[in-house]
Amino acid sequence: MSKSKVAELPVLQDGDAVPCCPPITAGELSPADAEKMAAMFKALSDPVRLRLFSKIASHPGGEACVCDIADVGVSQPTVSHHLKKLREAGLLTSERRGTWVYYQVAPSVVAAMAAMLDLRA
């Protein structure tokens, strides 16, 4: 008997994105905000991680099984390592369903990062 559950993912409306940090033009980043953003950008600075993040973000339904995104030119253990780093940085969430793990971009993270870098603010 399976113990997996169906997760309800939040649907973001315009204006629902909450920046993790103030816009870069609002003033100097606090040490805590700088640490948080540096971890996110560091995680995305690896080409394999950026490809995995892109594959998940653009996957139909907003989530992807690890079995559907592992074709990035590295071994499966390396894919798992990179996905772990993206999760640790707060960029991805994951859910185990049976033997597979499904990944989603963390709610509002892309909008929050874009808002932080918005020079018009």
Explain the overall architecture.
- It is a single chain.
- By secondary structure, the protein is of the alpha+beta class.
- The chain has five helices and three strands.
- It has a three-stranded antiparallel sheet.
- Helix 2 packs across helix 4.
- It is elongated and about 45 Å long.
- It starts with 30 loop residues before the first helix and ends with a helix.
- The N terminus is likely disordered.
Main beta sheet: strand number and arrangement? 3 strands, antiparallel
Report how far the terminal alpha carbons are from each other.
Answer: 52 Å
The stretches of 5 or more residues where confidence is low (pLDDT under 50) are 1-17
Radius of gyration from the CA trace? 16 Å
Can you write the helix and strand succession as a string?
HHEHHEEH
Mean pLDDT: 80
Beta strands, count: 3
Largest beta sheet: strand ordering: 1-3-2
Bin the helical content: 40-55%
Q: What's the total helix number?
A: 5
* Percent of sequence in beta strands: 5-15%
- What would the principal axes of the Cα set say about the shape? elongated
Helix/strand/pairing class, anyone? alpha+beta
Name the descriptors.
disordered N terminus, elongated, 12% strand, alpha+beta
What is the topological layout?
Elements lengths: L30 H14 L2 H12 L4 E3 H4 L6 H13 L3 E6 L2 E6 L3 H9 L4
What would a concise description of this structure say?
A hairpin with a 2-residue loop joins strand 2 and strand 3 (100-105).
